[in-house]
Amino acid sequence: MSHQFINTWEIGQRVAGVYYVRSVSERNTRTGKPYLDLELQDRSGIVDAKLWDSKMEDTAPEGTLDWVSVKGTVEEFTGTLQLKIQEFRKVTEPANLSDYKLVTQGDRHADRKRLREMVDSVKNRFLNALLMGVLKDEEIRTRLYDAPGAVTMHDACIGGLLEHTLQVAELCDAVARQIPTLRRDLLLTGAILHDVGKTDELDYEGPVFDFTSSGTLVGHITLTTEIVSRAVEAIPDFPPTLRDAVLHLILSHHGKKEWGSPVAPALPEAFVLSQCDYMAAKVFIFNRARAEARKGLSTFVKGLDDRVYVGDIDFGEDKPAEVAAFEPDWDELARPVVNVLMGSPSPFQPGDADLAPDMILLPICGRIAAGMPDTSPEHVEGWRAVPSQPGAEKHFLLRVHGDSMRDAHILDGDLVRVSPAKTAHHNDIIVALVDGENTVKRLLKRPEGIFLHPENPDFDDIAIESEQDLRVQGKVVGLIRESVM
Fold it and tell me: Which domain, by its residues, includes 267?
């Protein structure tokens, strides 16, 4: 019979097979009866197991228990799976340990390809040469591909070190794209190399990972700086300040001295690396807790110092019929936010034959604060020619008065293009009727209430007591800024 991997178990399933005993302790029930509390492991995961009415001295007189053949039933206890053992027998170590070492569930071949692509993306010739110099060492490269990311905490599985390294590097890359002042090549080099010393720090020959003598006496941060320093020395004319910057990112990547870093981050790239490293590690622990628990709250999670919610979250249907009619017009939203019209205001009037076929005239219905928009001729301030699009014949223009929406790039004197609507979504910019006047604001639907939010810190939110009191006149779908040459 093929091995029944732990991650395939279901409640009520009968299980029979050989498993590694990760830990075992003798305990007593509330009534004083002895039992063995075990953690069993194979390559797919770890599970709690109970052998009731048993003592260690009877089960393993010599005091050690590493490998067992068990038969039992999978049960649920406090939201997690647990094996109730009915038959139990100590066995010798299997010839093939590959089924018992925890292994990443990711695509290890794809991870190697992603690493090569990430290294190639570093364009600075010294930093690229540094990365290539470290990775050309076959022993370092092989162990980087295979090593776990830790002994017991985050990414503690074969292939975990590379998976964690790539997650951190890609997070750093994403941050660098959003903050152009960050020196991307420096940041990515630090991210790719920050844990490379773990290739010497961790022993992963057996099913349970441990520290090597170097890992115990020196630690991966110092081991990493030694590897990087040797590689730098082999590169002619490597700038000393660049060397120090790379080493600083490595030395400070734990973020705080009390968390094991010799120095705190003193470069923005070092700070970003420490935060991305922290985030990737913590999310791994969250995901592992969620995978091991079944519902509600998990048991206490070491590394998070709390429990984790693993219940379902109802995100609703993909496209509920009752709100489908009010979905954003993505084609319209994809247009430029500001259309700057150079020259004098449009000379066109309704019925003009000279209007281009792809244009349409929209009425300007007074100022925002001048009351309800009225498109009757006597209340139209003027007309503007704008590009036509589906539904545009219902649009109208309103002139903005004031700078309450300044930070949304809607300025005093601008014309906002409005699509009539009676409802709107959270975060839409709308025209709303407040105290008999129209106003342009961003609609915010918060747990504490509904607010019309100005995009200018000098103005206060306007609180709306209820949905029924919200008088939406339309959504702002475009902006025209006139500029006379």
Answer: 108-292
Looking at 270, 292, 314, the residue that finishes a domain is: 292
Structure tokens at 300: 């206490």
Give the pairing of strands 210-211 and 339-342.
unpaired
The count of domains in the chain is: 3
From the list 198, 346, 404, 475, the catalytic residue is: 404
Query: Is 404 part of the annotated catalytic residue set?
Result: yes
Same domain for 183 and 123, yes or no, is yes
Residues 223 and 165 in one domain: yes
Q: Do residues 409 and 456 share a domain?
A: yes
Q: What is the CATH number of the domain that holds 14?
A: 2.40.50.140
In angstroms, the CA 209 to CA 199 distance is: 12
245 & 337 share domain: no
Which pTM value belongs to this model? Answer: 0.58
Cα(198)–Cα(193) distance, rounded to whole angstroms? 10
Do 198 and 121 belong to one domain? yes
Same-domain pairing of 183 and 70: no
**For residue 455, which of 411, 424, 413 has the smallest C-alpha distance?**
411
Same-domain status, 190 and 288: yes
Specify the amino acid at residue 263: V
How many Å apart are CA 29 and CA 160, to the nearest integer? 37
**Is 101 part of any domain?**
no
Looking at the domain assignment, is residue 46 inside a domain?
yes
pLDDT tens track, the chain, 485 positions: 688 888 888 899 999 989 999 888 889 988 889 999 998 988 888 888 999 988 887 777 666 778 889 999 999 887 678 999 998 888 888 878 888 888 887 888 889 999 999 999 999 999 999 999 999 999 999 999 988 888 777 777 888 899 999 999 999 999 999 998 999 999 999 999 999 999 989 888 888 888 899 888 998 999 999 999 999 999 999 999 999 999 999 999 998 888 889 999 999 999 999 999 999 988 887 777 766 665 555 555 566 666 666 667 777 766 544 444 444 454 444 433 434 443 345 555 666 656 677 778 888 876 543 334 566 666 678 888 777 777 777 888 888 888 898 888 888 888 888 888 888 888 889 998 887 778 899 998 877 788 899 988 889 989 888 776 788 888 988 888 765 44
Question: Residue 441 catalytic?
Answer: yes
CATH of the domain at 265: 1.10.3210
Catalytic residue chosen out of the listed positions 101, 198, 441, 475: 441
Does one domain contain both 62 and 197? no
The answer for residues whose C-beta is within 8 angstroms of residue 216's C-beta and 6 or more apart is none
